[in-house]
Design a protein that fits this description.
The structure is a single chain. This protein has helices spanning 8-15, 19-28, 45-55, 62-65, 77-89, 100-110, 126-135, 153-161, 174-186, and strands at 5-7, 34-35, 41-44, 69-73, 93-97, 114-117, 143-148, 166-169. By secondary structure, it is an alpha/beta fold. It has two domains: 5-60, Multidrug-efflux Transporter Regulator, Chain: A, Domain 2; 66-186, Response regulator (Rossmann fold), CATH 3.40.50.2300. The strands form two sheets. Strands 5-4-6-7-8 form a five-stranded parallel sheet, sandwiched between helices. A three-stranded antiparallel sheet has the order 1-3-2. Helix 7 (126-135) links the parallel strand 6 (114-117) and strand 7 (143-148). The chain is elongated, with a radius of gyration of 19 Å.
Length: 187
């Protein structure tokens, strides 16, 4: 479900400013908002988009306009950062987890549409993470795209049997990765 109303803290995060700055913009009338009966300011998505387009042209408006959520599960911080940046610029909402156990918590809280999953991590590996996701009726609908640096016929067959929806080998080109992400989310 798409969120079309934002609180001041949510809008501040999108605009990469502090809450006080966002509150001042609202109070001064620079950014249109309305007051709820409970006394909280809410900002409509269209008003925030318009504000960003006019006054903050350096920010990608698509950051919050697309509802697709992607969970990056990889123990390498450099891979997390790279994927996070790439997905951000293409309008996806994203979270990251460093291992299978953290991924389980993030899946329940973030409710991703797609998981980009590494195979070999400390603790619970990608094979077990994939198996558990696909065996649960609450999470089996989540698409899983495996991104591994350990390509082998055995690994590919094993993860596909566990329920993965796609398989890519590191390093992967940006266009190939984004095409796979888009194709899996749209299925």
């Amino acid at each position: 479900m798409k969120n079309d109303l934002f609180t001041i803290p949510q809008a501040a995060k999108i605009c990469s400013v502090c809450r006080t700055t966002m509150w001042r913009w609202v109070k001064s009338g620079k950014l249109e908002a309305f007051l709820t009966p409970g006394g909280q300011f809410k900002i409509r998505e269209k008003d925030l988009k318009s504000f960003i387009q006019k006054r903050m042209k350096h920010l990608p408006v698509v950051e919050f306009s697309q509802g697709e959520k992607i969970l990056i599960v990889d123990d390498d911080p450099a891979i997390q950062k790279l994927l996070n940046k790439m997905l951000s610029y293409n309008g996806y909402r994203r979270e990251a987890a460093s291992d299978g156990f953290e991924a389980g918590t993030k899946i329940m809280q973030f409710k991703p549409d797609l998981i980009i999953l590494d195979l070999f991590m400390p603790g619970m590996d990608g094979f077990e993470v994939c198996k558990q996701i696909k065996e649960s009726s609450n999470t089996s609908h989540i698409k899983i795209l495996v991104l591994t640096g350990f390509d082998s016929k055995e690994n590919r067959e094993r993860i596909m049997r566990a329920g993965a929806d796609g398989y890519l080998v590191k390093p992967v080109g940006k266009s190939v990765l984004l095409k796979n992400v888009k194709d899996l989310i749209s299925k």
